[in-house]
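Recall that a protein's primary structure is simply its ordered list of amino acids. Everything else, from secondary elements to tertiary packing, is in principle encoded there. The following example makes that idea concrete.
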Amino acid sequence: MLNYTNTITEEKSYPGLQMKEVKPIMKLIIRGKKREFLSAIGKSLNLLLPTESNTSSTSEKLSALWLSPDEWMIYSNEISKSDNNDYETEILLEKNISKTNLGAVTDVTDQFVMINIKGDKIFDLFETGCPFNFNDFRNKNGSVTQTILAKIDVIIHNQNKNEVNLFVRRSFSQHLFSWMNDSASRL
C-alpha cells in the first residue's frame, strides 16, 4: 500500500506564475537499446518513444520523455489512486520488457516530485537560477531538458507555451520550491 506524503503542501500564485505539486502520478524509468525494445513499448503502451534527443511523445494516458539514447521517463497524465502503488503500466512493461530481457523498468514514482508551473513568466523564473539557454526551448512544445536549477538536478518538460512540468528528486523538492517562491516574488 502506498504511503504517499506530499513534500510540497501548498500551491503558490504570483502575477504570471502558478506553481503546485501534482500528486501522486506514476513515473517509470525504462532503458533498452534493441529495436525489439522500442517495438514492444509501442505495442504495450500504444505510445511511440521519442528517439530524437530532448523531445517527448504523448498519448491520452501517458507521456514519454527522452533522457538519453537508451533511457526514457514515462509518466501518467492522470493522478493515480493514492491507496496503492500497483500500476497497470508498470505490470505490463515488466511482463513485456523485463521478463523478456529486452530492457529494464524501474518505478521512480516516490523518487521524483512533479511540479506543474503555469504562466508567462516561467522562463524568467528559470533564467534566474539556471545556466541553460531557454531561447529555443520555450518555443518548442514537447521539449525536454535535464539541467541544473538553483544547483539542483531537474528534468523540465515543456508542455506548451505557458506550462511546464518540472521533475526534481524528492529530497530536494522542498528546497527548490522554496527557492522558486523566493525568486518568483521578485520577478
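The chain has a mean pLDDT of 91. Residues 73 and 88 are 16 Å apart (CA to CA).
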